[in-house]
Amino acid sequence: MKTLSADPMPQAMYDEMRTALVGDHAELDVSGAGSLPSAFPVTELATASMGIAGACLAGLIHGDNRSRAQPASHVDRRLASMWFAWSLRPVGWEVPPAMDPIAGDYEGSDGWIRLHTNAPHHRDAALKVLGCPSDREAVAKAVASRSIDNLEADVVEQGGCAAAMRSLDAWAAHPQGTAVAAESLIHKTFQHPGNIPAWPYDAKRPLSGFRVLDLTRVLAGPIAGRFLAAYGAQVLRIDPPDWEEPGVVPEVTLGKRCAGLDLTQQGDRETFERLLGEADIVLHGYRAGALDGLGYDEEARRRINPNLIDVSLNAYGWTGPWKDRRGFDSLVQMSSGIAHQGMIWSGKDKPTPLPVQALDHATGYLMAAAAITGLTGRLLVGSTMTAKLSLARTAHLLVSHRDTGDITAMPPETPGDLAPAIEQTGWGPAQRLRFPVSITGSPAHWALPSGPLRSSPPAWP
Predict the structure, then answer these.
(1) Fewer Cβ atoms within 10 A, N terminus or C terminus of the chain?
(2) Cα–Cα distance between 173 and 147 in angstroms, integer?
(3) More confident residue, 97 or 176
(4) 28 near 76, Cβ under 8 Å?
């Protein structure tokens, strides 16, 4: 397999991803021009991660029948960069803001810290530690007198989400940074349960008939489910009764049915176990041990469904002292040195993150690639796979390829970048950007528009 690209950076990242996944991947043809402005090769990360997801799907198609020519896989680097920002273009309506007014970066007595307060209980935790009202000026005043390391520890101890800004060197020397650097990009284990169900193959919709139980939130995991839905998978997202994320739901529920369950209630637990038992893939993004506390650790999930492809996401990695820590893309960027390096690169005097939430997006496509790799193994050798990924390990991949070289400006969006179809979302009409990935004979297509959380019954169609 070779990668057809004039730029060595996407190929280097792609090759590392390919090594992590293993398998028979299609050739990757890259087109498009321009790069997102950053201290790090964000466009190259977008190109490689979307490309490897497409290549894994091409490998699955080829794996069903070795006499069939392996389809070519193509990715447009410019469109990939744009999808890493926002693919939806509402017509006559607006998506609510994604960030809580209190969320953001604050300067402490000895550096910068980011407070993540989009969830009400995370905001309450930060305000309780600071002892101030829910007002940005009051929060800034309270943070100003605090050591950022101590404040970070206090907010986390209270059940909130915060990250002090560290340099690349400080993170590399930190116990968690050291642990993450030693982890695999994708940690995989395999089982051989026997009695593998048959594959209902459809060349145009290669994931048709596969059921995906999506237990993820915000961006990375939902992006994985959205990719799988593009090629025919039946994706059922499950959320608890009180969870909301209005700023991102229209972007990530494309192609999915969205239901609600309360796993503290016996009836809903029985429904969940039935759905899990009938799924082919489960995607989950809970902190390490969170599902265990609900009684659904890996052993329990395997007992319910021995044939399950189990793909999970964590923020700060699966080993080290922070493996149980709550986290999001923006926090990992602060912890891992990305925001600090961006500040140096841009000449600014405050944290400067990536131009898009690239850790979320790239990890989402890697999760999709892992899920498809698991299906391929189930088809060819009768194995099932458990795969674990993390935002922090994806950050390590990006940082290790940080020589961006000359940056060519990204050409601006044009009407031709939009797919012509109107998507009748749950909020109003919209258009999507054209999808960056193309696979010969298997066009991406979502059968369902994006819709609100808990708008469907908890059942497979």
Answers:
(1) C
(2) 20
(3) 176
(4) no
